[in-house]
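Sequence design from tokenized structure. All designs in this work follow the same two-part layout: the structure record, then the generated sequence. An example of the structure record is given first.
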């Protein structure tokens, strides 16, 4: 078999694992596909004759590509970067094999992905590699450009934030609900000033593919743009617990049609994720809250 054909075959053997690494770092199917494409280009241009563990060689490559993409995303905060909301399929033709489904589905709820989106790029890479894929800190250190002890601190800091978000205190939930309900009231009433009061200046609204098909924009950035997007809308939405965090749900005959997840920092909404994909909705734990 020609060298390129052999490499391509080995790359495909590792695609599910590499795709899961990129997906959890980037939170976007399309960006994860881009990261894998770049990893393949780097592989095809490299001398791998002495590489015994190709998966071990490729994982840091995908991590570095993902880190570069995360940093680029932050450096151009006003530019759309495409859909970054979790979508459960990644395979060709939207086919999802059982192994890939398990890699993407286990413990990757909306709440976790929203929290991961609030981490710094280095924190996110260190946490995902170590806590989700058991990569040693000695190997993570050169990827994030830190010492092993500093990489350990990055992951520890990220872990505290993730664990805190996964199990918010009663006070946190009350404050979350206050912010979300203020957002909902301002949206329904078309009160732009009230909307701006609860939105971070750099807030990002993202919609998954199904929501885009329903007419939503895939991404909206900035408080003014997000406020105008919601002004006078969301009349059918109700407050709900979404994977343990306070969000909004629009349901039809008791079945969720659209779920809104929120990342809230210092009383301001910094991210809103809009999920309408039926399969993704079935994976979410949604409980409507009543006044």
């Amino acid at each position: 078999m020609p060298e390129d054909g052999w490499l391509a075959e080995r790359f495909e053997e590792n695609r599910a694992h590499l795709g899961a690494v990129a997906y959890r770092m980037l939170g976007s199917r399309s960006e994860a596909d881009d990261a894998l494409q770049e990893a393949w280009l780097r592989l095809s241009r490299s001398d791998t004759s002495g590489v015994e563990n190709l998966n071990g060689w490729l994982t840091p490559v995908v991590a570095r590509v993902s880190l570069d993409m995360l940093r680029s995303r932050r450096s151009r905060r006003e530019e759309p970067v495409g859909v970054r909301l979790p979508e459960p399929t990644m395979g060709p033709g939207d086919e999802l094999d059982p192994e890939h489904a398990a890699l993407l589905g286990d413990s990757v709820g909306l709440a976790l992905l929203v929290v991961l989106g609030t981490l710094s790029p280095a924190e996110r890479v260190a946490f995902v590699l170590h806590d989700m894929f058991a990569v040693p800190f000695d190997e993570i250190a050169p990827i994030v450009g830190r010492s092993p002890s500093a990489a350990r601190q990055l992951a520890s800091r990220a872990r505290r934030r993730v664990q805190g978000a996964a199990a918010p205190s009663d006070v946190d939930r009350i404050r979350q609900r206050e912010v979300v309900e203020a957002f909902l009231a301002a949206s329904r009433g078309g009160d732009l000033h009230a909307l701006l009061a609860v939105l971070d200046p750099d807030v990002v609204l993202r919609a998954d593919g199904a929501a885009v098909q329903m007419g939503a924009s895939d991404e909206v950035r900035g408080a003014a743009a997000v406020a105008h997007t919601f002004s006078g809308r969301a009349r059918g939405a109700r407050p709900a617990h979404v994977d343990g965090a306070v969000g909004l749900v629009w349901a039809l005959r008791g079945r969720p049609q659209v779920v809104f997840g929120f990342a809230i920092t210092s009383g301001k909404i910094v991210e809103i994720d809009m999920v309408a994909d039926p399969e993704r909705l079935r994976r979410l734990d949604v409980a409507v809250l009543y006044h």
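The CA atoms of residues 78 and 221 lie 6 Å apart. We note this feature because it recurs in several other targets discussed in the main text.
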